[in-house]
Amino acid sequence: MTVAMRSVDGVRLVHAEDPDLGYVVVEVVVEAGALLDPPGKEGLASLAASTLLRGTRRRSHQQVMDDVNDLGAGLDTTAQKETIAVVGDVMPRYLREWSDVVADVLANPAFPADEVERERALVLEDLRNLRDDDGELAGHFFNRFLYRGHPLGRPTDGSLASVARLKAADCRAFHRAHVRRGNLIVLAAGAIDAAGADALVRRLVAGVPEGATPRATMPVPPRAEGLRALIVDKPGRTQSQVVLGHPSIAWRDPDLFPLLVGNTAFGGTFTSRLVREIREERGWSYGAGTGITAGRQMGTFSARFFPATRDTVPAIALTLDLMERAARDGLDADEVEFAKDAL
């Protein structure tokens, strides 16, 4: 596999050629995510991303999906704190037809009012159901509590109140402001050579305006000393959903990849140290793990497990002790090698 990065028609391209893969994976990333949601309209980036496929000026939602499915290809959208993305995969012989559909989605989304309302209703239903999903609820409150008063604490999907305010015109305005060539990164991997990748980018962005909009800049969250705990009480439960962690490092930090290896060794595989101690040795939780999400300016480290209520406090104490020991004494060489092989 060969990997190259270059600019094509004002768009950054990351190209990883692997002719043995047999198909092409494409991701069009827009550097505009939930951090750019206007105050009171949290969830806008997520709604705009999910409604990109809901029809263009030339294709209805059904036509978009039919045109993709007829090629045996995939197409979806995602939204995160700092980006939204259009992602998919297709066999090389259908790449031109598939990219024509995606180019239409990127340049000409219609955001029909009825389709936006349909998608908004689904988001509102998911937010209502959040109250009954203890795992998702724990993650939701963890982020809010960790980044209180900071943009990172605002939920990507928004709230019942903020999503209820969103309209099709908001989605159009978000798209018009941020889907510009200077904000785009195209990732193309698989059975596609350099000339094919360059041609793909040109087709994808042919109708996208030039220029860029400013990236979101964030204040540094105030440093919190000591341990803080938030309890979301749901009477009658016999099990706890525990999330603990702290702010972590940015994409460009030279320690990112060593930290990812260390995280994998500590809590990133089914046989890692945390899982072994929590699950195998004590049987306190069927699952346990740690993760790192990096961002442009900072990221988040978190550990999660779900013990019985009676085991919650000792499980938290053990996890904090394991983290402290790993930071103080490091990891064993065989743990690190296993993590590197796993990655």
Overview of this structure, please?
With 343 residues, the chain is an alpha+beta fold. It has 12 helices and 9 strands. The strands form 2 sheets. Strands 1-2-6-3-5-4 form a 6-stranded mixed sheet. A 3-stranded antiparallel sheet has the order 7-9-8, sandwiched between helices. It starts with a strand and ends with a helix. The mean pLDDT is 94.
Q: In angstroms, what separates the terminal alpha carbons?
A: 16 Å
Q: Please bin the fraction of helical residues.
A: 25-40%
**Order of SSEs:** EEEHHEEHHHHHEHEHHEEHH
Mean pLDDT: 94
Largest sheet: 6 strands, mixed
The number of helices is: 12
Catalogue the unreliable spans.
none
Oligomer: single chain
Structural class: alpha+beta
**Proportion of β residues?**
15-25%
| Overall geometry | globular
**Tally of strands:** 9
Q: Which radius of gyration do the C-alpha atoms yield?
A: 22 Å
Compose a concise summary of this entry.
The protein is an alpha+beta fold. The protein has helices at residues 44-50, 61-69, 95-107, 113-129, 134-146, 160-164, 168-178, 194-204, 256-268, 273-281, 312-329, 333-342; strands at 2-8, 11-17, 24-30, 74-79, 84-90, 184-190, 242-248, 288-293, 299-305.
Topology of this structure?
Layout: E1 2-8, E2 11-17, E3 24-30, H1 44-50, H2 61-69, E4 74-79, E5 84-90, H3 95-107, H4 113-129, H5 134-146, H6 160-164, H7 168-178, E6 184-190, H8 194-204, E7 242-248, H9 256-268, H10 273-281, E8 288-293, E9 299-305, H11 312-329, H12 333-342
Parallel strand pairs: 2-6
Antiparallel strand pairs: 1-2, 3-5, 3-6, 4-5, 7-9, 8-9
Helix pairs in contact: 1-7, 9-12, 10-11
